[in-house]
Amino acid sequence: MVEDGEGLKCKYLLRDRDAIYPTKKMKDYFCSEDIKVIKTPIQAPKANVYVESFIGTFKRECLNHFLIFHQGQLNYICKTWFKHYNTERPHRGKDKRIIRAQNNLVTQQFQSFGLAFGVIFICMLIGLRSIRLLLLSIPPNILPIASVFGLMGYFDISLNTGSVMVASVVLGIGVDDTVHMLVALARNQKKDSSTSKVKRETINTISPALVTTTTVIGCGFLVLTLSSFVPLTHFGFLASIAIFVALWADLRLVPALLLLRVGIP
Predict the structure, then answer these.
(1) Residue 132 and residue 155: Cα distance in Å, rounded?
(2) Which residues does 134 contact at the CB level (< 8 Å), separation at least 6?
(3) How does pLDDT run along the chain (265 residues), one tens digit per residue?
(4) What is the distance between the alpha carbons of residues 149 and 111, in angstroms, rounded to a whole number?
(5) What are the backbone angles phi and psi of residue 108, rounded to the nearest 5°?
(6) For residue 38, what is the enclosing H or E element?
(7) DSSP per-residue string spanning 94-144
(8) What is the helix (H) or strand (E) element at residue 212, kind and residue range?
(9) 251 secondary structure, DSSP code
C-alpha cells in the first residue's frame, strides 16, 4: 500500500535479507515510487522480531475477522485498529507509557517519602539530642499527612503526579515549625520549672512567626487550585490544608503532649 486515503505516502520499506525477494524487479519498483528500502543487519534475527509480532497480532485480531473488498475499506480498518492498538488495547502501547510512567512516579515518591522521613528524624535526634523530644515531634508531623489521605478518600481524589508529592512537601515544611517549637520549649524549660507557664510563654513567643509563615505558604498553595491542570489543582488544595493542619498540631498538639509528662531532659 503505497498511498492511503489520506494522501500519506510510504517512504521506507524495512525488510530482512531473505533470498525470496526478487532483488532487481523489487528495487526498480520501489525506486520508481521513491521508496527507500532498508535491510535488517546481517546475522541479526531479532532485529525484526517486534515487527513480525505486530504483523501477527494485526492479522489475528483484525484482518482475519473481515472480508475486505476495496482499498478504502482496508485503509479505514487499519486506521481504526491502529488507534485501538495504541490507546485502548491492554498492552504497552504508546499512550500506555504515560500510565506506566505515572505508576513509577507514585512508587518512587513513596520510597522517597520513607527515606526523607527516616533521614529527617535522624537529623532531629542528632540536633535535639533527646529521644523523648524526637518521639514528641513525630505525631504533629504524621497528623497532616494522615489528614491529606483522609481528604483524598473523602473527595475521591486518586493518587496522581500532583497528590503523591504532598506528603513529602508537607513533611519538609511542617517539621521546620516543629523544630522551632521544640527548641523554644526546651529553652524556656530551663528558665522555669512550671510546665503550664512554659507552654504559655512558648506559644506567645513563637506563634506569631509560625502563623505568619504558614499563612503565606498556605495561601501560595491555594493559588494553585486556580490551575486548569487537575493534578496541580489537587496538589495545591491538599498541600494548603495539610500546612494549616501542621500549624494546629504544632501549636496545640505539641504543648498538649508536653503536659503529659514533667520536664524536658
Answers:
(1) 36
(2) 121, 124, 125, 128
(3) 444 445 567 777 777 777 766 667 777 777 888 888 877 777 776 766 777 787 888 888 899 988 888 888 988 998 898 888 877 777 655 555 656 666 676 677 777 778 877 887 788 788 777 787 778 788 888 888 888 888 888 888 877 777 778 888 888 888 888 888 877 877 777 776 666 677 777 777 888 888 898 899 999 999 999 988 888 898 899 999 999 998 888 888 877 777 665 444 4
(4) 17
(5) -65, -35
(6) strand 36-39
(7) TTHHHHHHHHHHHHHHHHHHHHHHHHHHHHHHHHH--HHHHHHHHHHHHHH
(8) helix 195-223
(9) I
- Cβ neighbours around 228 below 10 Å, total: 6
The CATH-assigned architecture of domain 104-258 is Up-down Bundle (1.20)
Give the number of other CB atoms < 10 A from CB of residue 16: 15
| Helical packing angle, 166-191 and 230-248, nearest 10° | 10
**Domain boundaries along the sequence of the chain:** 12-87, 104-258
How far, in Å, CA of 33 to CA of 13, rounded?
11
Q: What's the pLDDT tens digit per position in 84-99?
A: 887 777 765 555 565 6
Residue 43 region, left (φ>0) first, then alpha (ψ -120 to 50), else beta?
left
